Amino acid sequence: MSDHSLPDEIISEILSPALKVSDEVFSDTSRVSPFSKYSESTSAYLLVCKSWLRVATPLLYNVVILRSKAQAKALSLALAGNKMLGKFIKKLRVEGGYGAPMLTILQCSPNISDLFVSLEIYSSDNTNGLCKGLQLLNPTRLILWDLSFRPLENKMVSQLVDALAKSISQWDRLSVFDCPFAATTNRAKKVISPLIRSKRLQALAISFVSTSSWAYDTFKECPLKVIQAKQPVQEWERTHYLPRLKNDPKLMALLKFTDTITRSLDELERGHLEPALELPLIAPSLNPSFTPLAGAPEDVHDKIWARVLHFAMSVPELANDVKWKDIPRRVPLLLRLGLPSYYAHVMLRRSSAAPSFASALSRNPSLGPHVRSLGIQYWSSIDHEFGTNPMLAILLRTSGLLRFGGNKDLANDTFSADEEGPISWNAFEAMAQCSGSTLRECFARIHTYQVASANIFAGLTALRTLIWNSSTTFLEVPNASGHGLPSLEKLWISSASTSFMTVLSRMKLPSLRRVILSCDSPSSEIFLETHGPKLTELHVSSYFLSIMESRVLKLCPNLRSFSILGYRPPDADDLYLSEPITSLVKMIFEASYVRRNMAKNEIAEWEQFFTELNTESLPNLREIWVENCEWPTTERDIAKSGWVRCAEMMIKRNINLVDRTGTKWRSRLQVK
């Protein structure tokens, strides 16, 4: 029987991108380790099949990262059980002390060429094994990490520094040093002195260009070939420090910038902020007198240039709400065919902009149907003080609107209705009448009107997204309201009257699937009683849960995602269900404001909530996202973290706890 398996060389090429750790990441000396990410272990690739195990094992052990005592113990057991594994290790990164297992690891790893050692060691850690094992190595590169300000001082750190100093004097291959120091402190002197005495150092890495003079003076007895500044050149260094380096040509000959933009001092001083772009070569025309579109009809000219101007006037960018400062000046390109594109997306940023725009539409009525989106970013009482209503005039002439208002996208749940400038009720009526058949998104902040007709919603046939912020009182017209807003999919109620909620409750709203209730009105319960069964996503506040007579989840049995806004956790009883809801897979706890450092008693409240949460009534819940949660990045902080305790508690219930970045907690290897 023929063997159809791939050659090992091909499998190696396939697995290398997934298993390889780049040298840039391995040697990263950022404050937060680049390996403090909670992702699936790459060792999972070894479990696919025997051929993958055979090929992937050397790749996996080539670069080893140790970030916990449990990892160190597991590695020591693996190396002690299979002597061949240690020979694969070429780079070793040790981010702690990790006790006796480190000696076994270093004894079994004779081929280590690159060694990363952290000096951020707490007194509760143990560096005895690491200190003894350092003398067994002979690396070519040493990377040290230490705190820039207030480095730790304790017995374990002192032992490690002394062991490093002793070992460095014996390492006859060491020629590259990544230096964490910026001044000659006692600790720095202990480490640096044997490097200077050995006179073997050829490459030196420092954090900032501003420390290059100190580094050059300190290591000038070494045969240095390069001094690498790892951090990009700062603006103050470019202005105040770099010009002085010209007076030291020997240092300048050694200094190498890591700046991704520049490679020389002259370029830095000239302020070149972008690399030169290589433009593609365009073959010249075979006819030197060729004139594009010379024989084309005028309407062809118009169509081509209209399309060109569509992009030249930044219409796609404006439709995506990019920052206006990133948009180049458009007025110079404003030509006859550019006007429709120019007015396609309009944002009125000042009170004087509305009258000016209304006047422009009055002079040139043909522009009105080309306006696709219209927003307001100013607050003014001009409609009432002067008896004029420029927004009414504008909305009477913009008959092709697709979106009104909306500085931010509802899809990201970051829009605040308070940011939108208000309009009068008459202006809103005009928009509904003129653009009702085209309007898809409406972010409306409307001045209160006492006696409004619900018939207005019957004309908004294309509306898919509505953010409502108005206390307007409505007449109850059951027939008209029952057939209103047939296409509405997303509804965000920021502020509303009881009559508005009643009108919505009498509508059929067949397409409604997503609702955000930012107002804590008891009348919202009537709305959920009517439309709750069709909802798949709901956002409410924890206070709203507490004032509800009925359980929200009972009124909305088909939810897939349920979001609760509040700084503290809700009462677990408010989420209790006597019968299970099988549709819910995700629960989100949004914060009214985000705090990175929460007090112990506040986290204790979350621990109590998760303990009391009845997950048996939520059999398919798989993810709980907490905006105020942030995973710790060191073994010491992990051991103290209340969030980790919550996550471990939920993992036992087959539910993942997710932090503000969208990263779920993964259980770490434990020491037995």
TrEMBL record:
Record SUPFAM superfamilies: RNI-like (SSF52047)
Upper lineage: Eukaryota, Fungi, Dikarya, Basidiomycota, Agaricomycotina
Matching Gene3D superfamilies: Ribonuclease Inhibitor (3.80.10.10)
Protein name: Uncharacterized protein
